[in-house]
């Protein structure tokens, strides 16, 4: 394993130290490992908080700032944070208007956020939670852990963060987040595995001529292994299940998000986006907004995910609203 | 009446922590195949923190020790195993109460409360291919034997039942946790959570009823 680390057990601490040093105008890092917007809490504003395992940078810490998240709770690499973190973050960003927890649908994240919400409520902070579960690679069923939260989380955090910044109350912000969740679908694939620093070796072995289709964001194997195909064929493998699931239909306005998994260069993401745009046009979908880049990653994994969000006018307006964070910045 | 005291509980926790450390790589490798390659790492981080905390806890009653272990796990492990094993030990603590010694039947009742807590927190049932599949038969084996067999024999049967439960679900498709995302591909892989639970019942057997 070759990595730019000092000690596998200190990767998250050292990285948070670096983030705090790089963005003192946007964030501060408080104990126990919580990234908080510098001017939090803001009186009368709903606090928007997310969190999850580390290794997905820039998500979530890179989205803390003006117009997006008020706090992010990074766990160990690929491990959900502990309730102490969400409790500290919730209290740090509560300006009296309550706090929204945006939770990705993973068993550990759900349980730790649930415990934190119970503890925060006991301390008198009003907490609402929305679970993001947008991965169409996972067949949803009452009897399973359900769909994973993946790329849709980034879009939800931007749109919901803008609504909170504009002064919407907790119930409205929660309803908006649920509306984004109901209208967003994603699917991902991997060309390589990745190495969790503390594990020291790749999570799975994969041949030079193979790929994993239907992966999540934790270096885990996907639903099936296939022979490597062209970028256009891979885009079809990801897009068709997304398009058919919602389903997206002719006349829909969408936000198209092509995301890199951490080890894929931007030039390849544009190759994918080229085909995404063609497929949307062929279906009669109008791409109103887009995002191309590595925003929700799986360490150094090579691969990509595609996310489509069916937009309404309010979501488009909130997407365009000013944002100033380490990873996303426009209009501010 | 009580044959299990605070010293026994501490010895069990220390032995479990030691075995988790020894088998950290094995647990993480099992998790690499159907999960996200962190189960051994996370459990070891939590139980190392527990061991560091034990000097403060060991003078307390049974309930205080178990609750201290549970709170430490919830605050240090993360993932699913933190809340699940944390809840397990918290429920043991609630069941022990302020007693400083218990008998086998009271231990079985506490473990049943722990199992109920795990099922409640994780919404898992039998055959979902989780730690519940090892814990349920182990608790049942203990319940059916305490009172008519000596504690050592009953705990040995519980450990065997946990291992059998772990192996019984290996061919199944996981329905809970990260492994469920693999669908059919999760079949024929041993479940990491059922494995760490089996290690727990083996540590309980060896700590409370050492071989003569």
Low-confidence stretches of chain B: none
Tally of separate helices of chain A: 8
User: Helical residue percent of chain B?
Assistant: 55-70%
Number of helices of chain B: 9
Radius of gyration of chain A in whole Å, from Cα? 19 Å
Shape of chain B: globular
Helix proportion of chain A: 25-40%
Q: Spell the H/E element sequence of chain B.
A: EHHHHHEHHHH
> The biggest beta sheet of chain B, please?
2 strands, antiparallel
From the 3D coordinates, which CATH architecture of chain B would you assign?
Alpha Horseshoe
- Structural class of the secondary elements of chain A? alpha/beta
CATH class of chain B: Mainly Alpha
Shape summary of chain A: globular
Oligomer: heterodimer
| Top CATH class of the largest domain in chain A | Alpha Beta
Mean pLDDT of chain B equals: 93
Keywords for this structure?
heterodimer; A: 332 residues; alpha/beta; Rossmann fold; Hypothetical Protein Tm841, Chain: A,domain 3; 2 domains; 6-stranded mixed sheet; 32% helix; B: 212 residues; mainly alpha; Serine Threonine Protein Phosphatase 5, Tetratricopeptide repeat; two-stranded antiparallel ribbon; 2 strands; 2% strand
Task: Explain what you see.
The complex is a heterodimer of chains A (about 325) and B (about 210). The mean pLDDT of chain A is about 95. In chain A, strand 14 and strand 15 (about 330) form a beta hairpin. Chain A has two domains: about 10-185, Dihydroxyacetone kinase, domain 1 (Rossmann fold, 3-Layer(aba) Sandwich); about 185-320, Hypothetical Protein Tm841, Chain: A,domain 3 (2-Layer Sandwich). Chain A starts with 10 loop residues before the first helix and ends with a strand. Chain A is of the alpha/beta class and about 325 residues long. In chain A, about 30% of the residues lie in helices and about 25% in strands. The longest helix of chain A is centred in the C-terminal third of the chain and has 18 residues, at about 265-285. Chain A has helices at about 10-20, 85-95, 105-120, 150-165, 170-180, 230-245, 265-285, 315-320; strands at about 25-30, 35, 45-55, 65, 70-75, 100-105, 125-130, 185-190, 210-215, 225, 255-260, 285-295, 305-310, 325, 330. By secondary structure, chain B is mainly α. Chain B has a single domain (about 5-205), classed as DhaL domain (Serine Threonine Protein Phosphatase 5, Tetratricopeptide repeat, Alpha Horseshoe). Helices cover about 70% and strands about 0% of the residues of chain B. Chain B has helices at about 5-20, 25-35, 40-55, 60-75, 80-95, 105-120, 130-145, 150-170, 190-210; strands at about 5, 100. Chain B has a two-stranded antiparallel sheet. The interface between A and B is large, with 39 and 32 residues.
């Amino acid at each position: 394993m070759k990595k730019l680390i000092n000690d596998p057990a200190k990767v998250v601490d050292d990285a948070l130290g670096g983030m705090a040093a790089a963005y003192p105008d946007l964030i501060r890092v408080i104990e126990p490992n919580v990234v908080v917007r510098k001017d939090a809490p803001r009186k009368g504003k709903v606090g928007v908080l997310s969190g999850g395992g580390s290794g997905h940078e820039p998500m979530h810490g890179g989205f803390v700032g003006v117009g997006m998240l008020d706090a992010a709770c990074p766990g160990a690499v690929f491990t959900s944070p502990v309730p102490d973190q969400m409790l500290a973050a919730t209290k740090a960003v509560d300006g009296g208007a309550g706090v929204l927890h945006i939770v990705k649908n993973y068993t550990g994240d759900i349980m730790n956020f649930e415990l934190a919400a119970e503890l925060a409520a006991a301390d008198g902070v009003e907490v609402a939670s929305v679970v993001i579960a947008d991965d169409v690679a996972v067949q949803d069923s009452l009897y399973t852990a359900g769909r994973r939260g993946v790329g849709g989380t980034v879009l939800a955090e931007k749109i919901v963060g803008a609504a909170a910044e504009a002064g919407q109350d907790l119930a409205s912000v929660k309803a908006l987040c649920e509306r984004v969740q109901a209208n967003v679908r994603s699917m991902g694939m991997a060309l390589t595995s990745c190495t969790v620093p503390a594990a020291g070796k790749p999570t799975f072995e994969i041949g030079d001529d193979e790929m994993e289709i239907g992966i999540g964001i934790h270096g885990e194997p996907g639903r099936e292994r296939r022979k490597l195909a062209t970028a256009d064929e891979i885009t079809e493998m990801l897009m068709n299940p997304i398009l058919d699931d919602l389903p997206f239909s002719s006349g829909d306005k969408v936000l198209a998000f092509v995301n890199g998994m951490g080890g894929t260069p931007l030039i390849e993401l544009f190759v994918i986006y080229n085909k995404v745009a063609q497929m949307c046009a062929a279906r009669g979908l109008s791409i109103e907004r887009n995002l191309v880049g590595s925003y929700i990653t799986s360490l150094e994994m090579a691969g990509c995910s595609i996310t489509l969000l069916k937009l309404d006018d309010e979501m488009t307006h909130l997407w365009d609203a000013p944002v100033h964070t380490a990873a996303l910045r426009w209009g501010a | 009446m009580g044959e299990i005291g605070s010293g026994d509980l501490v010895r069990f926790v220390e032995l479990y922590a030691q075995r988790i450390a020894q088998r950290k790589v094995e647990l993480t490798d099992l998790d690499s195949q159907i999960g996200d390659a962190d189960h051994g790492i996370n459990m070891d981080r939590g139980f190392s923190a527990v061991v560091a905390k034990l000097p403060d806890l060991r003078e307390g009653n049974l309930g205080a020790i178990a609750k201290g272990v549970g709170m430490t796990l919830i605050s240090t492990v993360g993932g699913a195993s933190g809340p699940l094993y944390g809840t397990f030990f918290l429920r043991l603590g609630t069941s022990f109460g302020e007693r400083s010694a218990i008998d086998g039947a009271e231990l079985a009742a506490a473990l049943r409360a722990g199992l109920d807590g795990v099922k409640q927190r994780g919404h898992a049932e039998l055959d979902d291919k989780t730690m519940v599949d090892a814990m349920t038969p182990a608790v049942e084996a203990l319940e059916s034997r305490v009172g008519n067999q000596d504690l050592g024999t009953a705990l040995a049967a519980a450990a065997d039942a946990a291992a059998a439960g772990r192996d019984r679900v290996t061919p199944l498709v996981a329905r809970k946790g990260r492994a469920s995302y693999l669908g059919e591909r999760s079949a024929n892989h041993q479940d990491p959570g059922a494995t760490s639970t089996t290690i727990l019942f083996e540590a309980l057997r060896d700590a409370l009823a050492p071989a003569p």
